[in-house]
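Dear support,

Our group has been running a series of protein-ligand predictions, and this particular one with magnesium ion is the one our PI (initials K.S.) wants archived with full inputs and outputs. We had some confusion internally about which version of the output was final, so please treat the block below as the authoritative record. The input we submitted was:
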Amino acid sequence: MIEVKDLVRQFKSGDRTIKPVNGVSFELEKGTLASIVGKSGSGKSTLLSLLGALDKPTSGDVVVDGVSLAGLPAGKLTEYRRRDIGFVFQQFNLIPNLSAVDNVMLPMEFAGMRKAARLERARSLLEQVQLDPDKQSRRINKLSGGEQQRVAIARALANEPKLILADEPTGNLDEQTGEHIIELLSSLSRNHNTTILVVTHDRSLAQKTERRFRLQQGKLTEEAVRPRVAAGA
Amino acid sequence: MSVLARSVGNAFRNKIRTAAVVAVLAVAIGLALAMLVANQAVGGKVQELNASVGTVLTVNPAGAQGFDGGGEPLTTAQTATAAAVPNVVSVVGTKALRLETATAASTTSTTGTTTQQAGPGAGPGGGTSVTTNLQAAIDAGTLGNRNNTSGSTGSGNTGTGSGSTGTAPAFSLPITATGVGAEVDTSGKALNITSGTGLGDYTVASTKALVGTTLATKNNLKAGSTFTIAGKTFTVAGIFDAGTTFGNNAVYTTLAEAQALAATPGELSSMVVTVNSMENVDAAKTALQTALGSSKADVTQGQRNLETAVSSLDSVKNISLVAFIAALGTAGLIILLIMVMLVRERRREIGVLKAIGARNRTIGLQFVLEALVLVALGSVVGAAIASFASGGIASALISSNSSTSAASQRGPGGGGFGGPGGNPFGGASQLLTSVTAIASPGVIAAGVAAVFGVAVVGALVPALLTARIRPIEVLRGE
Ligand SMILES: Nc1ncnc2c1ncn2[C@@H]1O[C@H](COP(=O)(O)OP(=O)(O)O)[C@@H](O)[C@H]1O
Ligand SMILES: [Mg+2]
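Confirmed final output from the archive:
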């Protein structure tokens, strides 16, 4: 369970102060697939970076399973990112000179998992995201955008995180590939009982999620709550 | 995939740049290693000089040196006195003889050898002339003839005027024969025997002799050949190389044999006293002078001119040390700048690693290792450069530093025959050119270790900079 309490993040640009996140509060139950929509520049990425402890809020707090991020030292925040969070970025952000399987193994290496175990798990994750086995050992820059995003999702799943944060994961993909990615995330949340928060400006993708939020002028509003259709868990 | 594997991979991400960086590093590292090799070679030579010659004292009869002067001769008994002086490790007696070529001796016989004995300068401590069938390996030349002119004693280090007419172009130079009590030359330095063997037991009379290279060539002598001194047949046991023309126009016999030839048993021309360490030389010199009595013996520090050699070598040593440190610093600086550049370039990637949970130290280690991969490659190429270049660099350093001091060495050595029993060293310049800078694996390994040490320091700064990169960098440009 993730609780967001009156989160504020402000930036100073010149003599102006902007608050892309200005008093955001919400709660997500475990295993929920949720989405945030909003215009470009509305602060969606800023909000995700606060939830994923990539950045610190100006005020407010994020509480994950009862642990307040505001009270954690830098080392613990690193551990939180490593163990509890899986990030999927719009631009994939894979390490270009490593193979697909090496990229997926990275978070496990950081978590201290043994090499044989890492390799086995990385291969099974890449299988789950349906990357052809012959492409698993290929360098990232030899893969298509859709394939790279699948590798990025596999990497996000590597350490079995509590929360997957996906920042416009389909933004750089064609419509069909984007659909695939969303379906993939949706089935993951069902099969692994993982909480997933997807940022998108694609309303049709947002339609497929259980809970839909809109970020506007720093405030988060919920559009509708719809019960899970294919209840697996 | 491990941190190390990733570092190696990253080092080769941009191959052209890696090649350029390795080339620049190799030059700096190669220079550093060459300087270290030069430094070690020169340092070794200084130590060797200090150890062998720098601790040697020469004892001459009071008032006499070689074939000059007067006073009472030294005796074998005095070697025991000298050996009892604290810090003295060895005492070697020498007996100098002057060998006159039989034909030359006969033509000047009336005025030659006999007058020498009675001549104004020939003291009892001086050498004794005897005949030989050997031909001197040195032409008389201007210096020889001038030194040989009667009445030229004013020039200090000339011969004692053998009484020849001085205009005779047929004048033949004498050959120095020295009886030694051990396998050392008159400066206490071990004889460099290039063929054959030594004389074995130097304390007993034997008809074996060591002959200088040029003298051997001039007289067609090889190990096993024979020649005569005072009508007695000697066998060449070995050929030695003293390193100088003058020094090689000489014969060594055992001390007892030389004393017998001169018919002066128990008499010494000089003693070569070796002191246990450089620091004790001055004290031992004073003690030795006191023990032997200043009216009987003069104690001098052998090879004073070596001090100039040592000091000029010392300056080469210092220069090469400074150059080593500078080149090492340059290598460190290159690494620092390259790594700072790489860290800036991979800011976003570092952000990604942090976003997926990499610890600061993992990322720092990855960059340090990457730097070390570059340094390792640079060291391999640099070591190759150094092993080819160090000899040239060392001799260039030495020749530029020794020209002044070498020039000032020439003094008494220049062909004069009255020197202290002959100076087999041609002075410092001779020693300096004999410094061979060989890139030994040990020195290269030590140098490479130093390079790695500096590289770690150089890489640590940018590696620590990665700790300051925040994970939010991952969103840059999104
Ligand atoms: N580090 C920053 N410094 C200053 N302004 C920033 C910074 N990061 C984001 N912003 C601003 O905050 C606003 C929200 O940005 P972002 O969260 O990226 O929007 P979105 O992801 O919804 O497009 C934008 O106006 C952006 O320019
Ligand atoms: Mg964004």
